[in-house]
Amino acid sequence: MADQDTAAAEAPRITARQVKEYLRAHPQFLADNMPLVAELLPGLSARDDGNVVDLRDYVVERLRREVEELKASAKALITTTRSNMSTQERTLQAALAVLAAGGMDALARVITDELPVVLQVDVVTFAFEAGLPKPAALFVQELPAGSIDALMGDRVTARLRESVGGEQPLYGAAAALVASDALVRLEPGAGLPQGVLALGTRTEGSFHPQQGTELLGFLARVVEHAVERWAQPAA
After folding, report:
1. Whole-model pTM?
2. Three-state DSSP string of 125-163
């Protein structure tokens, strides 16, 4: 028995390529072993004598499945493309609204009142670590120093969370509404502290880590520009 096991272990492994080459060199093999073909390919129909296998139904069924799979893939691609185009359009509308703000108070109103409607989420807010000039700090959520890194991770620019709850420092009175959110780091520069742009929805799973963040990143850069313009550091 040991000798048999050793011989089996030392026997050369037959590759798929070798099987194909053998069948091409011996086409009569399949004709002589139709019951084996039917056994290996479920769905083939055989005559009562077991000697002839009808490949037509098998081929037709296989082609039908492939066509259905292609249709499903095409439909999914179209749906995804339309969704991406819609998301891009909404993001551009949001960016234009942010750029049109005429001051820090107007910027805060745009972000908290207009962007939820434009972006089709329930809550949008922005928060900054302590250090904004007083006139600007009146219009944003203020966070303790180090809060952004603790919330998002060191040097992480965006974080999408499938499930959250009770983020009072970010969402204030609206915290109870938020079950899923997207966070994008804000770094306006010009001596201003870092912050975060937060989009929240009441539907758990609306955001998840597999989603792209390019458009959110673009919107964050526009918000940074507006904050740098309207929240100048104290002299």
Report:
1. 0.65
2. EEEEECCCCHHHHCCCEEECCCHHHHHHCCCCCEEEECC
